[in-house]
Design goal:
2 copies of one chain form a homodimer. With 338 residues, the first copy, chain A, is α/β, with parallel strands linked by helices. The first copy, chain A, is built from 13 helices and 12 strands. The structure holds a DNA duplex (30 and 30 nucleotides).
DNA sequence: CCCTCCTGAGTAATCGATTACTCAATTGAA
DNA sequence: TTCAATTGAGTAATCGATTACTCAGGAGGG
């Protein structure tokens, strides 16, 4: 591998000049720029990113910390992020935490060790102080989840309240009255907001919110199965289900099918998160679609901005909130089913 | 951030000694080992991986090059790989190529620039010489796909021939006779082998293979839709479909549903790759399940082994072949449907 | 014409670790 | 007791880039 020294020798110049040319830094005579570039081409030289990073105290790598990369939502978000990262010469380091706090801490330490150029976090179970320390070292963007504990960190979010509100309102308008909620862990902001949206919709429709129509899961499929089963087999069963995320919807849907209930006639069904299978099953499933890809892109955008401004005093905190979209399908429309 | 120099000062020793202690290298007096470790603890010192990598000419990062990280197969493979990587102190760099050759080359260049510790490739569209160059620099493992063009690179594969053979035989045993194949791109080894397995099964059953029962797609969903439509609307339509991968199965299944054909009575259906939705639809879908997670683990295992042996003469090439599993569900069993 | 300022380029320090080389002290053999 | 071998630790070179500092030479003002 050719080094910058080889290039300097080849061009008959010093390494300083070569470096200046490569980084478009300082002022170099046009003729010399050409000479350097020719030498670079001749040798097929590529700068060693490790040497560069050591000196600059910054790696052009972004970390993406997610709780479950196999979930379509995160996979899609990742996709959006990767596209923008690549265009801007960044690499993406995948950090799958599986909701494991220890692993999360480990990855954050890694981000610090390697002096990452930025970090996108979708698994914010850490404390405010930890995040503050982190943010002193590199740009950080929270996506999907956030907490009131750290209001001074950029975030890209979805209007979860509205999403849940519109889905539940839609169910109400289609005649369902005892709408059960398969909720997520209350300490995760998204779950909390979706629950709030569910409650608002009921209240606005003049219906009392009762605890026995809410069952809490953990955002993974098995818990969705258990929660749905509980809600539809209760003494006073739900006549519709709203599920707080796509993974739990898999379990919930299987539960309903196992119990032999027919959707949408006997039970209305809607969920957060769109996924391919939801159009393949019969009836197809009404969903609140999140713009996951766009969230990834927006996060990338923020990182790039933060990188540019070396502003010592932090500019205004960015809170980018995207709108979810209610996609009405057959599972929530009585009379449209088979 | 504390550096190794700070630790040396704190312990009243030289950086060389500190380094030796950290790497368990050379021989250091027990008392001094303790002193160094205490100093490290006191300062909360963590070695800078960039400095280390620069000197060692090796980064503890593995790259994972896949064509489509959103496909459940790769997501699961990634998961298995990540687990083993993390345990062994490696980081995983995600390289999503989307079957784009330019992007693939770009990522390989990156792996070389950063002097990755290993590379797992599931998108081998490159030439033999490119791979050979790459392999001189770091351990490389091919997963899922391989080509006769480079027989001297380690690989973890699935017995695609057997998988297809058993699925098609199963369809034959259930009375289907005109089995259509939704095939993948013939230049991808997996697609080729699955097609061969399909043919073998027919031949062994005494049935002629005819080209009009084979439609070729590109391993993505839309092409599955088109291919399936063609096969079941032909003059002499297929009475069963075997789909060569899970993504195309999504499209194929939707096509069949759109055409109003009933599975399994009017049409048998089976596919490579298992996925959640395949148990959620009615009837559930018969699949050839690949041990994706285990492939990831096996690939990690090979990288670790190659890293240990600094053997100049390459030890035997590893060809790890895992067995797929036929999971029989309702879509392929006439008379078991609703 | 001389002095100052500016431009363009080189020299060498630096980032943080590893390790070849060196050397003093200790061990063991003769 | 003496000399060679071994052990344990330090000094300094090195990995490959960036950049503070330095300096020569030319432009422009007085």
């Amino acid at each position: 591998m050719a080094t910058i020294r080889d290039v300097a020798t080849e061009a008959g110049l010093s390494t300083a000049t070569v470096s200046r040319v490569m980084n478009n830094n300082g002022s170099v005579d046009v003729a010399l720029v050409a000479r350097v570039n020719e030498a670079i081409d001749r040798l097929g030289y590529r700068a060693n990113p490790l040497g560069r990073a050591l000196r600059r105290k910054r790696t052009p790598i972004w970390g993406f910390l997610a709780s479950d990369i196999e979930a379509p939502f995160f996979a899609s978000l990742l996709h959006g992020l990767e596209g923008k990262a690549l265009i801007n010469g960044k690499l993406l380091m995948l950090c799958n935490t599986g909701e494991d706090l220890e692993r999360e801490r480990q990855y954050i330490q890694t981000a610090l060790d390697y002096q990452f150029g930025g970090l996108v976090i979708a698994a914010a179970s850490m404390t405010a102080t930890e995040l503050d320390v982190l943010q002193d070292e590199m740009p950080v963007v929270l996506v999907d989840r956030v907490s009131a504990a750290y209001p001074d960190i950029d975030a890209v979010l979805v209007n979860n309240h509205l999403g849940a509100y519109s889905a539940v309102t839609h169910l109400l308008e289609n005649g369902y009255r005892r709408i059960g909620l398969v909720a997520g862990p209350s300490d995760i902001s998204t779950a909390h907001e979706r629950r709030a949206g569910y409650c608002s919709a009921l209240v606005d429709y003049g219906i009392d919110v009762t605890d026995d129509l809410v069952a809490t899961g953990d955002f993974f499929a098995p818990s969705g199965h258990a929660a749905a089963t509980a809600l539809v087999t209760a003494d006073q069963p739900a006549d519709a289900l709203f599920v707080a995320n796509g993974q739990m919807a898999v379990g919930a849907y299987a539960a309903v099918r196992d119990l032999g209930l027919s959707i949408p006639d006997e039970l209305g069904f809607a969920t957060f998160d769109d996924d391919l299978w939801m159009t393949l099953v019969d009836p197809s499933i009404t969903v609140v679609r999140q713009p996951a890809y766009e969230i990834g892109e927006a996060a990338a955008h923020i990182l790039l901005r933060r990188e540019d401004v070396k502003d010592p005093e932090p500019s205004e905190v960015v809170r980018h909130i995207l709108e979810p979209e209610l996609v009405v399908r057959a599972s929530s429309c009585r009379g449209l089913g088979p």
